[in-house]
Amino acid sequence: MSEESLSEVARKLELLKLRFKDKATKDIGLLQQAIDQFRVGRFGPNDVAAAYHSLHRLAGSAGSFGYLALGEEARALEVMLKPLAEASNEVAPEQVQSVIDEAFAWRVAHLIDFLSLDQAVGQRAAAASLPVNGEMATESCVLIVHSDPDRAQELVQGLELHGFAPLALPTLQKAAEYGLSDVTALIAQDTQILRDGWQLESISDTPPVISLGAGDSFDERYALAECGVDGFLGEPVDIPVLADYMERLITEREESGSGRVMIVDDDPELLEHYGLVLEAGGLEVWRVNDPADILTALSEFRPDIVLMDVQMGKYRGPNLAQMLRFEPGWLGLPIIYLSSEDDREFQVEAMAKGGDDFLTKPVSDDFLLRAVTVRCYRARQLDKLASRDSLTGLLKHSLAKSEIQNEHARCRRRGEQAVVAMLDLDHFKQVNDRFGHRAGDLVIKGLANLLRHQLRKSDVIGRYGGEEFVVALPDCSVENAQRIMQSVCKHMAGIEFHSDDQEFTVTLSVGMVPLQDFLTSDDAIDAADQALYQQKQAGRNGVWVGGDKSERVRTLG
Ligand SMILES: Nc1nc2c(ncn2[C@@H]2O[C@H](COP(=O)(O)OP(=O)(O)OP(=O)(O)O)[C@@H](O)[C@H]2O)c(=O)[nH]1
């Protein structure tokens, strides 16, 4: 996030704080009036409970706006009032007066003083200091630092074929000058280079660092870990193995700082505050102020996790959580309560009703961001296990089909164009038979990684079956899609795979059709499959455009 947008977030947080101060001043005034009435025996059946809820809200929100002492004092008073508020029978004036004595009234009257004790300094006052991890490089630029220029060039050429944009540099200092925020990975030759050239921890936003070591001793590995290195591969390095290793580290790094969070809170200032803090940390946020909107918001936003207040007017978080679980689609959605309720019994009971965890208010901005980011990461990992193919990390068959179905509906609705393509490795049975299943797996992963690099983030990429893949390219003409797929075929054919001492290459056939020309997405996928068959018949290694205007445009190889 840029300096400018960070100061914009800081300005918004400051405004919210002012709004909170204003509202809290009014609430404390009303509370003081109510307490004075209670002391002379004037109160209706719900008045004590209302005073209790007012203190509860103050206790839960003050800390988030930097008024920690106010939050603690309100919490202490809330605890004293709780037995009266929860009494099943009407409480007698004597009971009320025994709790709301002179000392209690004095403390309520002095709550206002705590509003001048702004503790935001010790807290996280300015968003400028928020950990910012939201912006990930989209290019796959890789810096290679190697003392042997020939070997460096070999690495550059090999990684280029896997869709990376590698650059060889002679020293780590040169790499540091390059501007690491645009780099997706850094490959350094050995421990000594890392130790001599650069204190990794002094550089923020360091991309994943992989060391290619000649020696593979315990001490060398330990030294690498000490330098802050993320991965190690012993020389001589097999390029497809290196490419796959980098892919895994880059994906992990990207996913650890992203996530979609839905916040449900009836307090608009608190909702906005949490939203700004999480957005400044790189998360995508959807705010729900009225709990009645929760179902629509869920299906539109499809969050990784939900953060939910416990007490929201007539609605209670645990009941809402239980209600969400009625829908099979939301059974696995993690729900985290954000509440000032610190009674363990209550927390356990609330979790039994469909919640997964509790964050106790007041929660510092820093802790909130870290706790939510970690939970989002876990939720995404679990989701990935269910929806992603374990070998390639691409969408599984059924999910890829349903994404293509959505894209088809979108195209037909808006009159837009898109392309669907089926891809199949050529003579793959022979690869397995000659070089073994492990080598075959590396080829499949190689193609998956190549697709990830060559296609856009918005494209759908799925593993359709064993060595068959499906791809949908939204907002793309047939001509462009054809050019892109020809480039994928060309790169694939150029990758050298190794098995024992043997080198081999594998080619790819593609069939594609315009998605919007078909009545259903299944019809389009079938037609793309037929186009693929045509390409296989025509000699493989290339792209066939099918559909009504079927015409074979160009075959590579
Ligand atoms: N290593 C590996 N092989 C797989 C995997 N899934 C499927 N296969 C193999 O992929 C091969 C597909 O072979 P075929 O369908 O005969 O096709 P082909 O040899 O690629 O021939 P053409 O498609 O006509 O070019 C079979 O040998 C499968 O065992 C996998 O996950 N890993």
Fold blueprint:
Layout: H1 3-39, H2 47-61, H3 68-86, H4 93-99, H5 102-109, E1 141-145, H6 149-161, E2 165-169, H7 172-177, E3 185-188, H8 191-197, E4 209-213, H9 218-227, E5 231-234, H10 239-256, E6 260-264, H11 268-280, E7 284-288, H12 294-301, E8 305-309, E9 311-312, E10 315-316, H13 317-324, E11 335-339, H14 344-352, E12 357-360, H15 365-387, H16 397-414, E13 418-425, H17 428-435, H18 437-454, E14 460-463, E15 468-474, H19 478-494, E16 497-499, E17 502-504, E18 508-514, H20 521-537, E19 542-545, E20 551-555
Parallel strand pairs: 1-2, 1-3, 3-4, 4-5, 6-7, 6-8, 8-11, 11-12, 18-19
Antiparallel strand pairs: 9-10, 13-15, 13-18, 14-15, 16-17, 19-20
The structure holds guanosine-5'-triphosphate.
| Strand arrangement across the biggest beta sheet | 14-15-13-18-19-20
- Flag low-confidence runs: 119-139, 200-204, 550-557
**Which oligomerization state do the chains in this entry correspond to?**
single chain
Q: What is the CATH top level name of the largest domain?
A: Alpha Beta
User: Which range does the strand content fall in?
Assistant: 15-25%
The name of the CATH architecture of the largest domain is 2-Layer Sandwich
Report the helical percentage.
40-55%
Count of domain modules: 4
The tally of helices reads 20
The third-level CATH topology of the largest domain is Alpha-Beta Plaits
What gyration radius follows from the Cα positions, in whole Å? 30 Å
Named once each, the bound ligands are: guanosine-5'-triphosphate
Overall form: elongated
Question: Kindly, what is the distance between the CA atoms of the first and last residues, rounded to a whole number of angstroms?
Answer: 45 Å
Structural class: alpha/beta
